[in-house]
Write a structure and sequence with these properties.
Strand order of the largest sheet: 2-3-1-4-5
Largest sheet: 5 strands, parallel
Number of domains: 2
Helix content: 40-55%
Strand content: 5-15%
CATH superfamily of the largest domain: P-loop containing nucleotide triphosphate hydrolases
Number of strands: 5
Shape: globular
Structural class: alpha/beta
Order of helices and strands: EHEHHHHEEHHHEH
């Protein structure tokens, strides 16, 4: 089984590429989706989040208030580490569970912080980076999320620098001003090259 790590900066199109790889028969393990499940109402991370940060970081429905938490961790780096210490072990546990039950010849690990974490490199056969210019990232995220430019730039600064991502890549899919049809073609070409 090929264990393919997939990552890219915010707004790079990584999630779209992940879905295309899944449509080609790969099993997809989405770390972001697992993290969101952990912080939904009744999610496994919620009791510890309430203990660590207080009830004002919880929505009326009982989920983590993602916007309030995002602002808090930007202003207080130690809060980000505390949140990661709660959520990351739960995410890794669920990733292990899903990977143990996967039946596909290729497993795609969609991991936003793959490059930042020393945990992943030795567990993967190959790493595919989805890349684009920073201006494209900002434009896409502003259109998708409605955030202002300063917020998007702050998120980009917290992620691994492009040069660090590219340095660990076994393949790079350049996704700048590419329509969906061309992106699908590029994903198929890259999948063939990576042995899918």
């Amino acid at each position: 089984m090929l264990r393919l790590g997939l990552t890219g900066g915010i707004g790079s199109g990584k999630s779209t590429v992940a879905r295309e790889l899944q449509s080609l028969g790969a099993a997809l393990i989405d770390a972001d989706a697992i993290s969101r499940q952990c912080t939904q109402a009744n999610g496994l991370a919620m009791p510890a989040i309430v203990r660590q940060f207080g009830p004002h970081f919880v929505t009326p429905e009982g989920a983590m208030d993602r916007n309030r938490m995002r602002e808090h961790v930007f202003a207080h780096p130690e809060a980000r580490h505390a949140l990661e210490a709660i959520v990351h072990p739960l995410v890794q546990q669920e990733i292990r569970r899903q990977s143990d039950s996967a039946q596909s010849p290729c497993m795609v690990f969609d991991i936003p912080l793959l490059v930042e974490s020393p945990h992943w490199r030795h567990q993967l056969d190959r790493i595919l980076i989805v890349d684009c210019t920073e201006d494209t990232q900002i434009r896409r995220v502003q259109a998708r999320n409605g955030w202002n430019r300063a917020t998007v730039e702050a998120i980009i600064r917290q992620q691994s620098a492009r040069k660090h991502r590219l340095a660990v890549a076994d393949g790079v899919l350049w996704n700048d001003d590419m329509d969906l049809q061309l992106l699908r073609h590029e994903v198929q070409r890259m999948a063939t090259r990576l042995g899918l």
